[in-house]
């Protein structure tokens, strides 16, 4: 039962990775850029919730009512003022821009909040668990986190499939120039997509802060796990992102948890590269 317990807890842990990766998957799926500041933006959400809990004296869950609208505004303004210009300059510039943003955010957080480690209060649910057997107990907070990840990814999927915004997002992701010709404002679509992505990142950052401690330099590590979840699950696939998060979390041997997750990521990259190379060779033979 020990390995069963490790797998169950790993699957639930995958919920936080999937939640972190959801905004990254959305931005890449729509704008075709990898936001290297994604983990740092999630940290901003955690620190904003920390401010509310410390100075306004509200619970972390109530703090989300202020953090999420603020994150939407930050994402919208970020796209209109910074990312929009970098997108016009080529594919490499957005990577450099978001990398610079990562460094700036880390230094600003360290300046205003010090390098000290902080954490968020998860409330009574943080210590509650459901005991299945003598060797298996399921923490309620992990179940809540996994449920929130499913709701967020499912909600994004419904928005993309059944709403006007979703149709505009899919059309712009397919071909922004053609979308402009049929009356879609691609700039507005990009800004709304970034706003949603930053809001989901902030939500993930708050849940991450309730699950473990964080400091101003924790954004890079969260970006790594989010990026791995997106790649393992299939770039641009929201439900695949959930699967990628579960794969990262569900490790039988906790001692080699981080290493095994990175090895899975590397194996997926190698396999997909080999498949693409094989497809190219077949196409060239067909042409010949």
Describe this entry's structure for a reader.
The protein has 288 residues and is mainly α. It has eleven helices and two strands; from the N terminus they run H-H-H-H-E-E-H-H-H-H-H-H-H. Strands 1-2 form a two-stranded antiparallel ribbon. Helix 2 crosses helix 8. The longest helix is centred in the last third of the chain and has 31 residues, at 257-287. It is globular. The relative contact order is 0.21.
Our measurement of the CA-to-CA distance between the termini, rounded to an integer number of angstroms, reads 57 Å
**What is the subunit arrangement here?**
single chain
Q: What is the tally of helical segments?
A: 11
Helix content: over 70%
- What is the beta-strand fraction? under 5%
In a nutshell, what does this entry contain?
This protein has 288 residues and is mainly alpha-helical. It has 11 helices and 2 strands; from the N terminus they run ααααββααααααα. The chain has a two-stranded antiparallel ribbon.
Task: Give structural attributes.
two-stranded antiparallel ribbon; 2 strands; 11 helices; 77% helix; 288 residues; mainly alpha; 3% strand; single chain
Please write out the topology:
Elements: H1 2-31, H2 38-56, H3 60-87, H4 92-113, E1 129-133, E2 136-139, H5 140-162, H6 164-174, H7 176-181, H8 186-211, H9 219-233, H10 238-249, H11 257-287
Antiparallel strand pairs: 1-2
Helix pairs in contact: 1-5, 1-8, 1-9, 1-10, 2-3, 2-4, 2-8, 2-9, 3-4, 3-8, 5-6, 6-8, 9-10, 9-11
